[in-house]
Amino acid sequence: MKTATLASIALAMSVSVANAQTIGVSMSDLDKFRTALLNGVVAHGQTVSGLKLVTENAKGDNELQKKQVQKLIADNVDAIILAVSDGDLGPQMTKMAADAGIPLVYINNVPSNLLDLPENQVVVASNEKESGTLETKQVCALLKGKGRVVVLMGEPFHAAARARTQDISDVIATPDCKGLEIVERQAAYWSRDYADQQMQEWLAAGVKFDAVIANNDEMALGAIRAMKKAGMPMKDVVVAGVDATDDALAAMVAGDLDVTILQSAVGQGAAAVDAAVKLVNKEKVPRENNVPFELVTPENISKYLPKSQ
């Protein structure tokens, strides 16, 4: 499958829309990262002359998100940018937009019907094979290839959670990291509070571990909070997350977080707007548009602090 980099679909900041156009934006929810994602869409949309954005938040409710998309279609928006809560909703969302003849850009979460998308529907996301792989390889290096690991997963039905968790297993299966052992693995639904609670349960049960690998920064931060409340020295455990949020970078500066992976909310938001504008203008856009992940560690964090979400 042909994949484009962010640069291949980026438009000049001076791009203009000949006639006023409206893009509807439906977000599955607004946690820390998805809020940054929406901000990235809105900020870039403001640079496009004549473009109006209408935003909706489904608050984690799949049925509400479907109704919101139906309303955007009824309001005759020119295109829709959709952060779908569940990749398996893809076929339904695709049909609704296709029946209305409205271009659709999936952002961040890849729909299950990726290979069946019509020409005016595309995906802007980051290759999840990079995220969990970069994260786990760095944890492996810090542990010198040996140790006990606990894993905090996002929503089980979310494509990124499934992919990042599989990445962890794939890295541990390699010769350099086969000395790592996953001793516990539980879903904490991208949530700092759920991760805090889960870590408290592991600690109360006497689970021994050398590293925490979380599918996102919020869960990594929840685990850190629980460990610090229990009096665990953070120098004795490796903690890794994904997203490079501002809170995560602050935790890294403080010496609590060891690894995070930059998933550019700004980059994905801008790329989604550019893709939507191109589709409205009947231009070709690759089906998959990749915004690369980047490894962030205490050694290189200084170059990423200005890029915090």
Helix content: 25-40%
Structural class category:
alpha/beta
Lateral strand order in the biggest sheet: 1-12-6-5-4-2-3
Q: Strand-and-helix sequence, N→C?
A: EHEHEHEHEEHEHEHEHEHEHEE
Number of strands: 13
Overall mean pLDDT stands at 92
What share of residues are in beta strands? Answer: 15-25%
- Cα-to-Cα separation, first versus last residue: 30 Å
- Figure out the total of helices: 10
**For the CA atoms, what is the radius of gyration?**
20 Å
Given as residue ranges, the uncertain stretches (5+ residues, pLDDT < 50) are: 1-18
Which features does this protein show?
elongated, single chain, 10 helices, 309 residues, 4-stranded parallel β-sheet, alpha/beta, disordered N terminus
Describe this structure in words.
This protein is α/β, with parallel strands linked by helices and 309 residues long. The chain contains ten helices and 13 strands. The strands form three sheets. Strands 1-12-6-5-4-2-3 form a seven-stranded parallel β-sheet, with helices on both faces. Strands 8-7-9-10 form a four-stranded parallel β-sheet, with helices on both faces. A two-stranded antiparallel ribbon has the order 11-13. Helix 3 (62-74) runs parallel beside helix 4 and helix 5 runs parallel beside helix 6. The two termini are 30 Å apart.
